[in-house]
Amino acid sequence: GHGRYGYVQDVKSKLNGGKFACKVMRIVCHNKHQITRMMQSEIAIVSRLRHPHVVKMYGSYTTPKECGMILLPIAEGTLEDLLRRWSSNRSWQEAKKHVIPWLGCLSSAVAYIHSMGVKHKDIKPSNILYKGHQIYLADFGLSVQFDPQNLSTSSGVGGTPAYTAPEAMVDGKRGRSADIFSLGCVFMEM
Fold first, then answer.
1. Per-residue pLDDT averaged across 139-149, rounded?
2. What is the structure's pLDDT at 182?
3. Catalytic residue chosen out of the listed positions 122, 147, 171, 179
4. Pick from 121, 123, 134: which is nearest to 186 by CA?
5. Residue 181 confidence (pLDDT)
6. Residue 114 half-sphere exposure toward CB, CA atoms < 13 A
7. What is residue 151's predicted lDDT score, i.e. its pLDDT?
8. pLDDT for res 80
9. Contact yes or no for 65/134 (Cβ under 8 A)
10. Pair 23, 43 in one domain
11. Apex CA 37: angle with CA 76 and CA 43, to 5°?
12. What is the pLDDT of residue 33?
């Protein structure tokens, strides 16, 4: 897939032949420091997370032109792609057998990242991957770390308006409840 500053590609380990996904962020001159900081933050966050429904990082690299993360799984696609396919094919029976289990998987993933002191800040179908019958929370590029014992909010813009909690839209304040709101929007779409 492709994003504003980067892309994801399949890669193969020269050591053991293992296949991985590589998320690459191009470092462009006009915002070089911002992109590098954002990717370093994402690397620091994702490297600590270990949950069956959160992408796993196996390594990272930085060159003068790009930063990258080596991740699993190699997804078949995003939840956004799958929802579009189900809708266009009217595959409601197929959708029903996935949706209920995935609600629990995603709820568990969000509860876990919050317990690890991470606010995602951009939960939406295009940041949720699927492979077979499994689903994974991905793209921690806007995520921030917080003290899990402190219920205060953080500020800052970011996220996708259609999935952003009202309080975050009004004053930019985002507590953990903003992630829950975003997840609820995803559930409604499912």
1. 81
2. 93
3. 122
4. 123
5. 93
6. 21
7. 52
8. 95
9. no
10. yes
11. 40
12. 78
Amino acid identity, position 78: T
Q: Which two tokens stand for residue 109?
A: 């993933």
| pTM listed for this prediction | 0.88
Say how many Å lie between the first and final Cα of the chain, rounded. 21
DSSP-H helix ranges across the chain:
32-48, 79-89, 92-115, 166-171, 176-189
Domain assignment of residue 1, yes or no: no
Q: What's the mean pLDDT in 83-109? A: 87
Domain ranges, residue 21: 6-72
Q: How many whole angstroms separate alpha carbon 12 and alpha carbon 58?
A: 13
* Same domain for 166 and 152: yes
pLDDT band (50, 70, 90) for residue 65: confident
Give the amino acid at 24: V
Both 117 and 155 in one domain: the answer is yes
- Taking the C-alpha atoms of residue 141 and residue 161, their distance in angstroms, rounded to an integer, is 16
122 is catalytic: yes
